[in-house]
Specification:
Layout (H helix, E strand, L loop, with lengths): L4 E5 L5 H9 L1 H7 L6 H13 L4 E7 L2 E9 L5 E7 L8 H12 L5 E6 L3 H9 L3 E8 L8 E8 L6
């Protein structure tokens, strides 16, 4: 784990990098998520940026945009999501970014869903204190089988 990982506010200038990251077929397979078309992606991120109820940070690795991390939803069902560009995998970026983000977002419990086959993301969440709380299935896109997921939680149902 070398290199600096920093979080900063998301800027519109980050959107093209985020867009390119989500086009990678290996990343989409790991996340069990279909890439969006450019216009839909940009509209989605414009809405996220303008929504003050969503906590969002750009992840920087050695000064380069490596991905993003977000938290959204109802206070009792706050969800966590992140995306790391493939070129930054295996460098500890996700773990360090999530640990920093957890200092910024104090809402507990905090929930995350991860595809069962995405062992790297599962490990990141566990290293940061999340525990498996259950299982779920999410509808897949393009007629593929549903995605089997682990549901993880940080903190108790009653709060921190």
């Amino acid at each position: 784990m070398t290199g600096d990982v920093l979080l900063r506010d998301v800027l519109e200038e980050d959107f093209p990098v985020f867009f390119e990251h989500q086009l990678d077929p290996d990343a989409c397979a790991m996340a069990a998520f279909a890439a969006r078309e450019r216009d839909a992606f940009m509209l989605h991120w414009t809405e996220i940026l303008s929504d003050d109820t969503i906590a969002k940070k750009t992840i920087l690795f050695d000064g380069r945009v490596a991905g993003y991390i977000v938290s959204f939803g109802q206070p009792d069902k706050q969800q966590l999501g992140y995306w790391i560009g493939k070129t930054f995998w295996g460098k500890g970026v996700a773990t360090r970014a999530l640990l920093a983000f957890l200092g910024f977002v104090k809402t507990r419990p905090l929930h995350a869903h991860v595809a069962k086959h995405n062992l790297a993301s599962l490990r990141v969440l566990e290293k940061c204190g999340f525990t498996i709380h259950g299982e779920d299935t999410a509808p897949s896109e393009a007629g593929d089988p549903d995605v089997e997921e682990f549901v993880l939680r940080l903190g108790s149902d009653g709060g921190s």
